[in-house]
Amino acid sequence: MISIRGLTKRFGTTTVLDGIDLDIAAGERVAIIGPSGTGKSTLLRCLNYLDRPEAGVIRIGDLTVDAATARPAQILALRRRTSFVFQNYSLFANKTARENITEALITVQRKLRAEADARAEAILREIGLADKAGAYPAALSGGQQQRIGIGRAMALDAALMLLDEPTSALDPEWVGEVLDLMRRVAERRQTMLIVTHEMQFAREIADRVIFMEGGRIVEQGPPSQIFDAPQDKRTESFLRRVR
Amino acid sequence: MRALDIDYMLGLVPVILGYVPLTIGMALAAMVCALLLACLLAVERVARIPVLDQLVQLFISFFRGTPLLVQLFLFYYGLPQILPFLSGINGVTAAIIGLTLHFSAYMAESIRAAILGVDRSQWEASQAVGMTQAQLMRRIILPQAARVAAPTLVNYFIDMIKSTSLAFTLGVTEMMGATQKEAAGSFLYFEAFLVVAMLYWAIVEILSYLQRRLEGRLNKALAR
Questions:
Q1: What is the set of domains in chain B, with CATH numbers?
Q2: Do the beta carbons of residue B27 and residue B160 sit within 8 Å?
Q3: What ipTM was assigned to the predicted interfaces of this complex?
């Protein structure tokens, strides 16, 4: 069970997150949609403190992190219960595909190399890149890099997977393979919070869709409600524009 | 103008070559120590730990702002007068310490720039998987910074080899000191110093060749 209360983030005088309250059940797959610059990515980045929120409490299982009192050790613990998939992949440039997956297993989770390697091999097969195990990120296509980015997150077995527009930076030809992989991750009931502009994808995989605007949650509900019968005018007008 | 005494020069080459190991040894020892110190200084400059940061800035400013020769004299002839336990220090040790401190200040700034040049995405990805600051530095940031800093650091090593010649002013008989003694005996100053110049030049050329090979290999690992 994940609960977020009063999460607030300001950049200078601009309030980007205006007291977000959100609960996510274990195994729930939540998609966040909304116009650009409404705080969707910032919400994800505040959940693992890549951006430090000014206020708010995040609870994941028995871990509670309050922005007012958060210490480095708590932030580290929070990051170890979440995994993150970046829009621009952000693979470790000095590590091969396999090492990108094993790195945190060995340095952070203290697994033995053999165990980490076995896990990486399994994941590389699953994401269809077993033949690229020894390749460096610079030698891989955008689609391949993002699949490894997702594989790196999968390997961590985190309580919550955060995905920040994973297909937005991709050339159109690579979008399909990345969406397919995310569908498979979702089918396993990995708890996930995904910011996406792929409305069809959100409708397919999400248990719940959240529409955000102006740093607030405007409306949320099952995909059928949000996409077919939005209650709020702002949701309706946004969906009309993106369709 | 008189003719060069070629026979004298050829005879001098093996004599001075005998001091090459000491010169290279001093430079290598100072380089290893300077690299370690520079990494610590650079990481501190990036992390900006209060108070320590001001001290590190002062250290870097002093060692970049005063001549190496002055620093060597200060350590070898000056400091033992104030700190008597240093009076037993020999010239080689003093030279290695001086070279270490002097070059670490320069190298720290190159390494700092290289660290700051590593893409922000690399920091964020490391933080997101839950690495500590020390882990992300050691595993992700420093290896990438090393690739950027390597050519500059090799240049400092070359500079350091040449700078070991200043150790002769501390009474160390290294390549320069040996040449000085030979020349004082033969009065053939031009020949003697020309030989030692050629030998320094040869060492530096060999290193420059190795530098090009090293860079080629470093770049190949991450080439597209």
A1: 6-221 (1.10.3720.10)
A2: yes
A3: 0.94
